[in-house]
Amino acid sequence: MQYDITERKRAEERIEELAFFDSLTHLPNRTLLRDHLKQAMTAGQRSKTFGALLFVDLDHFKTLNDTRGHHQGDLLLQAVAQRLTASVRESDTVARIGGDEFVVITGNLHGTMEEAVAQTKLVGAKILAALNQPYRLDDVDQHSTASIGATLFWGLETSSDDLLRQADLAMYKAKAAGRNALHFFDPAMQAVVFEHAVLEAGLRQAIRENRLVLHYQAQVAADGRVRGSEVLLRWQHPERGLLAPGEFIPLAEATHLIVPLGYWVLETACLQLAAWASRAEMAPLTVAVNVSAQQFRERDFVDRVLAILTRTGADPKRLSLELTESLLVEHAEDSIEKMLALKARGVGFSLDDFGTGYSSLSCLKRLPLNQLKIDQSFVRDILSDPTDAEIARIVVALARSRALEVIAEGVETQAQRDYLEDSGCYLYQGNFFSQPLPPEGFEAYVQRGSHDRPASFPAFLPPGEKGVS
């Protein structure tokens, strides 16, 4: 009988633990956090003091999970839990509410807002410093940082849900400011969040209802022949008209919609590539598709690209994937493995935004690239800024040394085009030749023949198209 009572008691304790504590870190979970937060708010109302809620989110945690495995990720979460607990007072609460998200509640702060803010900043700084130290995970050193959003509470004036929402918003502000930082909630954030929510809902609907369209900007050789095109996404918004990528891609990245969006772009471009294969003047042309960091880091990226090529019947040799310099340098080994797998099937690779601040030449030498792209930020002032001109020449020289093709984007004038040719660059993209065009406009442009002079844009632009890239 005594044995049965003991076992039942252990079972009850286990059930309680599962109900109120995180099984991995043994910290309070979201349910217990709400209870502790209500207690802190009630205590603050009695003592007439402020309290603070800090929302802590690890930076680039998904990358660690994807590249090193979930076991390493779990070890990091356990270490973070220990450091957070050691960074605050025993009376404070540290909870894990899911994934790489933690919440700290610190109560009994000063009775004035200014002093309470200062105290919260000190707590946040201590947490950031603790989490910024190297971690030893399975005999491997790992570095990690965190972004923190903070909000103050005074008694029961604000609901616990609203406090969590405020701190979450502030945390994303810290992410946007460069990560590894603390940011306080500002009421003005609510309006921005509402606008983003409306835009996000519209974007999800646009994907479902096929309101996205692809335009193609010509890539022209020095002899005037069109060699290919770059795909540029547009959103046909029901109220705002045709939106350029800069108006919705940042939101797509923040909400992870960039991944399904990226595969939609790739499949649609491959369908167009397959359709053009039956037309003599279009068949030799390549199509370049930008790939986001989030999409490229997906574990099944290679398999999904190959499946799209098989499904659409597009020729892999006519497809070029544009990757950013920072992505490839940050995750070199994984990048090389994926690139080699696709290159073995004929897919080409172009390095986009080269020279904009991340260069690692030793890493670059190992990447199986086909092309380097001179960023438009250098082309823009190439005639007036000696530094930009020198960078363009260096990119050309580097491409030559590795037997890579080089293309300049953002070419707007005849003088820029001529300077680039004199510098050894013989492939160009920009509004000097053609704005981004819908498929039928691009087809008509190609049929015109030689393109060593600007296109007559209006002939190919449908009503409402502004041609912005």
UniProtKB/TrEMBL annotation:
Pfam families: EAL, GGDEF. Residues 196-450 form the EAL domain. Residues 49-187 form the GGDEF domain. Residues 1-17 form the PAC domain. InterPro entries: Biofilm_reg_signaling (IPR052155), EAL_dom (IPR001633), EAL_sf (IPR035919), GGDEF_dom (IPR000160), Nucleotide_cyclase (IPR029787), PAS-assoc_C (IPR000700), Rev_trsase/Diguanyl_cyclase (IPR043128). CDD domains: EAL, GGDEF. Transmembrane segments: none annotated. NCBIfam families: GGDEF (TIGR00254). This is Uncharacterized protein.
